[in-house]
Amino acid sequence: MNNIQLLYVANNVTGKAVACQQSLLFLIQVADLDYHKQVEVLWAGEDGVWHFLPALFNRKAEDGWEYWQAEIVFPPQPHAEIPGDIRFALRLQAAGTEYWDNNEGGDYFSGAGSGGRLTGAASILQLSHAEQLQDGQHSVPIKLAVDAALEIEKVTIHWTIDNWQHSHTTSCRRQAQRKSASKALYAGLHLAQVWSGRIRVGEAFRLQYSISCESKEQTLWDNNAGQNYTLSRTPLRLLILNLHCYQEDEQDRKFWQIANAIDELGADVVCLQEVAEYWNDGRGDWPSNSANIINQRLPQPFHLYTDWSHLGFDKFREGVAILSRHPLAEQEARYVSDSHDAYSIHSRKVVSARIKVPYIGTLDVFSAHLSWWEDGFQQQFQRLSAWANGKRSAEVDATLLCGDFNIAAGSTGYELVVNGHQYEDQYLAANAPALFQQIFRVNDAHWQDYLADDYRIDYIFMDKDSGLRASSARTVFTEQDYGPVSDHCGYLMTFEPL
Fold this sequence. Notes:
The protein is mainly beta and 498 residues long. It has six helices and 31 strands.
């Protein structure tokens, strides 16, 4: 098979003779030979002048192939000439080599107003597939080209927004076709029927669908090679980071570094620990608050809730914070430690907030910095869990305990969390799902051995009955990723509804 191949071309003309509009559309299959590649259409209209039209990446295909698309529209202008009939060929430049699809040296032909045509490479081709639902998008247009020789009489979209717990159908309409010109002109191309429909998704996070095409003789399916098509919203991005309480060299530069990462990573919620501001005789100093400084350096400041626990490093009010792109509700701070003494490092306060995230759900988020095991972790975690459990209600889709827990993975403190059979390590769920199952679901007697080389003490623990799943987990603020900003690295995790 050639490394570049035409799949579909459409040549449409609308409007009156004095002011016609013409549009050209090319859908191309390209071998993924190199990340840096150039795909273009070389075409000439009735005036015989050749033009270069760049193609853009459209979507991934199966088995190392990609779909690319090129489109150009000539808007109606009084007495302006349109290209009319065109001849064209395709060119791919990748890894220092040039590849062509020029219809075996004869070029392709597309008559003005002739509509869409398919090559033999595909008898059914989706023309409108996207990979993501956009914010504010409540419906999805579907457009399909089908080889007219199949004599399809009915096209139906089969779809779900709840992972096939409920399924729906939407009928498509066939677009009118013009009569075909001489078949000799269209060597290598087959007349296509074009069908279109629209799926109403409302506020759903995810859409899955397939398409059936029925003739009198058979039913054919376009179902993404048996996997169905899936479109979803942007997942929730949650970042956790211990700021190291103003103990960093070049601290101001690192605050800028953190703010830049929050913006570039698209974080929606940020949980910070060792948030500090000057002590000022216990009254604090808001302009020096590290969470406030980072927040003010974002292009659009987030909603912020913070509180302090104790005197840190003899000169700071030290605490925790939640920053959120979305409004915070039911904000609350509580000591979870036995000590409430502002002069004791063993005094530990946690902040919580309820956040309603569009398309994701309602979350109870806790930002915590607990003590080491020997300094009271057990009692603190038990109080935190009881607090979080007491807030649960039917409207809460997920409970997330986030931050620095000062327990190494596999330690006695971590074992306490595992044996509680309620809160689960989302970093493992995303990055090591088989190991996650062994520890949190199978309860393998040797599970601690598997974590011998895992030195994390920062976690996102999620209630196992939550309606979300961790879809990715990434370590940030390392030498390789945004650079160190603290004596801790950060963790960015993404979450999607089940």
